[in-house]
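To whoever is on call:

I kicked off a structure prediction for a single chain this morning and the downstream step that reads the tokens threw a length-mismatch warning. I double-checked the sequence; it's 393 residues and nothing unusual in it as far as I can see. Pasting both halves so you can look.
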Amino acid sequence: MSGIGKKLLFIALPMFFIGCGDNGKKQEKTQNTTRVVTTYTALPKTVKSPADNPSTPEKEALGKLLFYDPILSGNKDVACATCHHPDNGYAEFLDISIGPNASGLGSKRKFNASNDIPFVKRNAPTIINSAYNGMDAFGNYEPSEATMFWDDRVKSLEKQALEPIKAFEEMRGHGIAEESILQTVVDRVKNIPEYQKLFADAFGEPNAVSVENLAKAIAAFERSLVTNNSRFDQYMRGDQDAILISEKEGFELFKSVGCVNCHNGPMFSDYKMHVLGTPENEKLVQPDAGFKDTFAFRTPTLRNLRFTPPYMHNGSLTTLKKVLEFYEDIANGKERNKHVPVKKYDPFVRELKLSVKEMSQIISFLNTLNDTNFDTSLPESVPSGLPVGGNIQ
């Protein structure tokens, strides 16, 4: 195995898990190499919800409005959609995100002239298929325990939905303390008659506007954003013509060189933390030490890679070619991050070597995991009357 093939597995999205356990898969040792015995299947055609938050059309519709409404941000200038916009595959084409006190969308977004708010320190992953987060190699997952963020700091989409609202550099900005921002936002929403009615209809009770229900509605909408019919999914369901012979060869190579060790199961992720020594993003004042200050980050899914550049947890590698070169460096014992010595690298990442032809074959296979069939519609307006998606024009 070479650092390159392995690298490719990690390249598509930010990642953050430390070590490969058995999480739905077995391991076997062959001489000095550990390989993971895993199973690949299509994504399920249905999505599970937590027992205390069953999805309904009313809840998803409410969540969509909240997702696009900048009333959830401290200064009413940032929405969830600001950094996770459908035009960008519910991610964004920036290395690291720009939150409050800025304007523009994706790569055109810039801070306003007078600014002291820092960059968000990590790349914004796509929300598409986050409903399946935590899925093991055999398609098993528990939505109430689904891993979130590059450092696995919360579980479930319900908890994830509230974290950006509280974060200074993501949505809160100046003026409101972290401990009071959620109640401030809920009080704003309560004062809007249209939201009062939408919450009552979605949750079947009066006075339904609350922090908990706000999170549940956003999570229900995010859970509706799935792409489970890629060409690879069609192939796994029996359509042998869904992918080309060259792509099938790329799939076999993907497995044989060791990418499978961390990118496995229907979501092509073991959802574990791994130390790679990814180069630092020079926009950040302090190095990002990741999960529990170990410089580990979770393995990203490899689905819909076309929507996730630039790559890695901090967007420091702009192309797949650069990602592969990075893995090649690791395989050769080079350090690309002075804070992460070679001895700290995950063993799996140092085991492979690929030729240029093999790299192109694997990339060809990864293209079969793209699926553009997701909701790209925007609300014409949001109940607050603020600009849809925040200050993105």
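Update from on-call: the warning came from a stale cache, not from the record. Cleared it. Sanity check on the structure: Confidence is low (pLDDT under 50) at residues 1-33.
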